[in-house]
Amino acid sequence: AQSVTQPDIHITVSEGASLELRCNYSYGATPYLFWYVQSPGQGLQLLLKYFSGDTLVQGIKGFEAEFKRSQSSFNLRKPSVHWSDAAEYFCAVGPSQGGSEKLVFGKGTKLTVNP
Amino acid sequence: NAGVTQTPKFRILKIGQSMTLQCAQDMNHNYMYWYRQDPGMGLKLIYYSVGAGITDKGEVPNGYNVSRSTTEDFPLRLELAAPSQTSVYFCASSYPMNSPLHFGNGTRLTVT
User: Fold this and answer.
1) pLDDT digit string (tens) for A44-74?
2) Using beta carbons and an 8 Å cutoff, which residues of B are at the interface with A?
3) Pick among B49, B60, B101, B105 to test the A interface (most A CBs inside 10 A)
4) CB contact under 8 A, A101 and B33
5) CA A61, CA A113: separation in Å to the nearest integer?
6) Phi, psi (5° rounding) for residue B47?
7) Do residues B66 and B77 make contact, with C-beta atoms less than 8 angstroms apart?
8) Residue B52: pLDDT band with limits 50, 70, 90
9) B99 pLDDT band (50/70/90 cuts)?
10) Any alpha helices (H) in chain B, and if so which ranges?
């Protein structure tokens, strides 16, 4: 069965610092991978997705993620964090064959940004 | 363009009461989903639908029911509310085959 692990429950960074949020997945074939962001009181919003091709994926709000098959990872990065990036971030994995009903979410990483 | 609209935003229920959480989307998406989000647990799929008249169970369907009479609407019904159903409920919609999900802003439900 597929699974997603986000090892960090809570991360605190200073504004302007770089950010990396970790995501490891378990899946037998090439997965579809997503990062979503949830601001307080809001629903989830798609940041970026990886289906195939270039393993470095660019998303909205200056985020990027790199798919590393050998490490079963899909870490999210941002070179310089803004105070508005404070939110909870969810990694999700789905099968390349099948629908979004099979999407599995990680438990999330809450990001706090210090001024 | 409203996207996915959920009502109500908040609700408090007594044990044993029933209620319907409403969800509507205006993007003509065939696929719709109901998730619950509990602190530190991520999102769990309750029910989903691939089109009008078609629904199926997700990972945690017990205690819930759904219907899909139109493409736009996908209500979630709680028949006998229990404290274990205290959660934040999110409705989402998408095109088929691993298309990104579009989420509503959620309904925060407390059962006491």
Assistant:
1) 999 999 988 889 999 999 999 999 999 999 9
2) 4, 31, 33, 40-43, 45, 48, 50, 56, 58, 90, 92, 94, 96-101, 103-106
3) B101
4) yes
5) 15
6) -145, 160
7) yes
8) very high
9) confident
10) none
